[in-house]
Amino acid sequence: MTNVQSYITEHTLEKKVEDILNMTVKAKPEEPMAFMAREFLKLSPASIVKIVGRQIVDSRGNPTVECDVTTYKGTYRAAVPSGASTGIHEAVELRDGDKSKWLGKGVQHAVDNINTLIAPALKGMDPTKQADVDNKMKEVDGTDNKAKLGANAILAVSMAVCKAGAAELGIPLYRHIANLAGNTKLVLPVPAFNIINGGSHAGNALAMQEFMIMPVG
Question: What is the Rg, in whole angstroms, of the alpha carbon atoms belonging to the chain?
């Protein structure tokens, strides 16, 4: 009994339960248990509990990286788009290079980096602190072009953390991203329509990768 009471005291459970019970009685929700569950969930700390990476197949049939970030609020998922072309100054998209599997395009090495290097480093961090999380991954990587962990591993985790951060703050993802960027005025993005492809995307000699039109004005 002493151990039970000390646990209750340590975590101030008695006061928290009493406060939420009073809040429920005052609000008189149609479903009190669901209401109380939501209020209790709000009291949980903003902390990354678990990160899991995996290999999936994208719309082109190529392997890419997917990541789940779990907090006390839930699990949030993101997958990395894998481009058909890369510039000389782009961060390294880590591929396995094993020609016997997925024509060398597997990403199991990047996935292993998420599960063995990134996950332990980020465990316990606040997902609302996006810059801190991203800087920690850059620190673990230690290269200028993300060659150790792989930009695809880092990006998958970063996007999933961003979703988790928005959920922790109780705001839509677009609003969270705007806040992170310091944007106070939100406008709908202007769509861009791809009409002609060149470069690595097409079997022609066009130097430009994409010719696009936009409805501006």
Answer: 23
Residue type, 15: K
Contact 160, 70 (CB under 8 A): no
- Neighbour count for residue 10 (Cβ, 10 Å): 8
pLDDT at position 96 is 95
Contact at 8 Å (CB) between 94 and 185? no
SS (H, E, C) 19-56: HHHHHHHHHCCCCHHHHHHHHHHHCCCCCEEEEEEEEE
* Residue keyed to tokens 């501006």: 216
Please spell the DSSP secondary structure of 72-101, one letter per residue. Answer: SS-EEEEE----S---TTSPP------TTS
Q: Where are any strands of DSSP class E within 92-214?
A: 193-197, 210-213
User: Poorest-confidence range of 93-97, 126-130, 188-192, 203-207?
Assistant: 203-207
Rounded Cα distance, 197 and 161, in Å: 33
pTM exceeds cut of 0.90? no
CA dist 203 and 217 (Å) reads 34
Task: Say if residues 185 and 168 touch (Cβ distance below 8 Å).
Answer: no
Cα pseudo-dihedral 121, 122, 123, 127, rounded to 10: 170
Q: Is 71 helix (H, G, I), strand (E, B) or coil?
A: strand
For 18, 26, 29, 125, the CA distances from 40, given in Å and listed in that order, are 11, 16, 15, 21
